Amino acid sequence: MNDSQSLMNKNIVLGVTGSIAAYKSAELTRLLIQAGANVRVMMTSAATQFITPLTLQTLSGHPVSLSLLDADEESAMGHIALARWADHILIAPATADTLSRLAFGRADDVLTAVCLATEAPIALAPAMNNKMWSNQATQANLMLLQQRGMKTIGPDSGQQACGEVGEGRFTEPQQIVNELVALMTIGPLVNQHVVITAGPTYEAIDPVRFIGNRSSGKMGFALAIAAMRSGAKVTLVAGPVNLDTPQGIKRIDVESAEQMASAVTEAMDSCSIFIACAAVADFTPMNPQTGKMKKNVDKGMILELKPTKDIVSMVAADKKNRPFVVGFAAETQHLADYAKDKLKRKQLDMIAANLVGENKGFAVDDNALEVFWSDGHKRLPLMPKSQLAEQLMTLITERFYAKNTI
């Protein structure tokens, strides 16, 4: 995504708001222009307390828009002209106050007025204290803006200017440019909804103990990122994993197979592609205890188990709203035979199979896959899971359109 020609001749309106991170907008302006973009800057009054308009005017080569009521600008309806000129609007940094005012449709300064008047896509790069970021009001505003089609870039987690550590740190300018390029690239899955399950499930024996497996969720999360980069709306249903939520992806956290099945059912609305990457437990305790079971060193223990819901079969059996269904098979031997049998038996459209055990498959950064469909097969050799996910997503996309093209 660092192609210097990726933004060539694109008209980018950069909105700068009142965050200490505003000083980084100078570097961001320079990088956007270096990538070939035409950049015009608009600033809130608070932003001018952190970086001077003259700095950004010098870097962009254009006067900075500061006031909605500037007589010279508004004689030509300056904010409307700027809104029409933009191919893309980038608000970076975007403060909590800015998110709130955008969510409520305010138009009391040049930045909010331009955003309200434009038909161009809008991207937000938030920057704020971690408590402000996690506040329910901020998250509600962000969700509303995302529902209206605005995209988010960041924030990152780390040391903040206030001295605290947490999520809310402004994403570095080069990464913002990279993400903006990705957002401006129309992917093959635009307007498609992809639902992905990832990670293990934990089946409670008692409040302390559980039945689980070694899945880290890395492959499922990598697939979610690959689907998003292909333009899809992505819902990620995640079991207990220690992974950060990819930006721009809706994440639903669950623990048990029952909870995962319920979350998948609710997420199926308008689902085009379902990828069952999670390592769902096959069995769950028949009678989980409400209190911690005490250890008896003189006796063993008999644990009665019952089957869990077969989530991928449940989705594949939906005749009314059936998506393109991709399953996963983790095997220790006879990989191809077991995978082909599962493909046919569960009536899947595609299955991705991999060997596990002895540093293969689970909790590692590299993997290899054997991918099967009704009349085809492709081997994806050992590579980082992020790269593997991109190749698998390309293959899934090809088969999805092959099936759905009349």
From TrEMBL:
Residues 190-398 form the DNA/pantothenate metabolism flavoprotein C-terminal domain. Residues 194-406 are annotated as: Phosphopantothenate--cysteine ligase. One of its GO terms (molecular function) is metal ion binding. Its cofactor is FMN; Mg(2+). One of its GO terms (biological process) is pantothenate catabolic process. InterPro entries: CoaB-like_sf (IPR035929), CoaBC (IPR005252), DNA/pantothenate-metab_flavo_C (IPR007085), Flavin_trans-like (IPR036551), Flavoprotein (IPR003382). Pathway: Cofactor biosynthesis; coenzyme A biosynthesis; CoA from (R)-pantothenate: step 3/5; Cofactor biosynthesis; coenzyme A biosynthesis; CoA from (R)-pantothenate: step 2/5. It comes from the Bacteria. CTP binds at residues 282, 292, 328, 342, 346. It holds the Pfam family DFP. Keywords: Decarboxylase, Flavoprotein, FMN, Ligase, Lyase, Magnesium, Metal-binding, Multifunctional enzyme. It catalyses: N-[(R)-4-phosphopantothenoyl]-L-cysteine + H(+) = (R)-4'-phosphopantetheine + CO2; (R)-4'-phosphopantothenate + L-cysteine + CTP = N-[(R)-4-phosphopantothenoyl]-L-cysteine + CMP + diphosphate + H(+). Residues 10-181 form the Flavoprotein domain. Residues 1-193 are annotated as: Phosphopantothenoylcysteine decarboxylase. GO terms for cellular component: phosphopantothenoylcysteine decarboxylase complex. Binds 1 FMN per subunit. Signal peptide: none annotated. Its EC number is 4.1.1.36, 6.3.2.5. In the C-terminal section; belongs to the PPC synthetase family. Catalyzes two sequential steps in the biosynthesis of coenzyme A. In the first step cysteine is conjugated to 4'-phosphopantothenate to form 4-phosphopantothenoylcysteine. In the second step the latter compound is decarboxylated to form 4'-phosphopantotheine. This is Coenzyme A biosynthesis bifunctional protein CoaBC. The gene is coaBC.
